[in-house]
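Lay summary. Proteins are chains of building blocks that fold into shapes, and those shapes determine what they do. In this project we predict the shape from the chain. Here is one chain we studied, written as its sequence of building blocks.
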Amino acid sequence: MENVIQMNDVSKSFKEFQLQNMSFSIKKGFVTGFIGANGSGKTTILKMLLNLIKPDSGQISIFGLDLQKHEKEIKERIGVVFDENILFESMSIHEIKKIIAPAYGGWEESDFQYYLDKFELPQKQSINKFSKGMKMKASLAFALSHQAELLLMDEPTAGLDPTFRREFLQLLRELMLDENKSILFSSHITTDMDRIADYITFIDQGAHVFTKEFYQIEKEFAVVRGNIELLDQDTEREFLSIEKSNSSFEALTNQVLNVENLFGEEVLIEKASLEDIMYFTKRRRAHA
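And here is the predicted shape, written in a compact code that computers can read:
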């Protein structure tokens, strides 16, 4: 099985938002960064993968199994770390474990205790007294302790201090030494993607823009800066989006070789960050 997640023509309509024929796949054994602006549909898709929201049409397969037909079997193999706390606020970790552990055949108590110690989490204190970072650590400890093959993460580093964020990303790298594990990692902190992502899936306004290997994005996209006089109807076709001032322009391209041949040393060409790609995509949509 090459793909751990497969979405085929999935659509979902809300009052003010739509997912539009969403189709993409997530490869097994890799970390896929899931990016898009607020309101683009990332959290909706993650909740669909947990069958918390059902699509209006289309099909979702996880581990090669139809989600609607094999929900229980699939969820046994998934770990979840969401930005919004999904634990019982009034209960302690010790009390929550008594509920969660029996639900998983693969629960490993020794792993759970290891992560509690590593994250310095008190077992008897109620969750509502935890900081946001501590709640995230607790969610991660539960997710990692039942041998999950797929981790779904929605803003997992939000609210974490910089030191633990680095430790958290290192922990994920260590987990990925097991090539049977896969991670779908949604985050607005694009530098986290730089450190850990093998692939990037980018969605915008409920539509799939691309899924590409990280190195391919670095090779394919660039930000170009130059004098406004260099632009005309023909040269502007080399750019996905352009921001102009009275004397200069800044633009995003995925035709780097064409731009180099066309403009030579008259422009400055720099590698595009994920943030650049998101920004210029939004501008293109706004000016469409």
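What the prediction tells us: The first strand starts at residue 3 and ends at 13.
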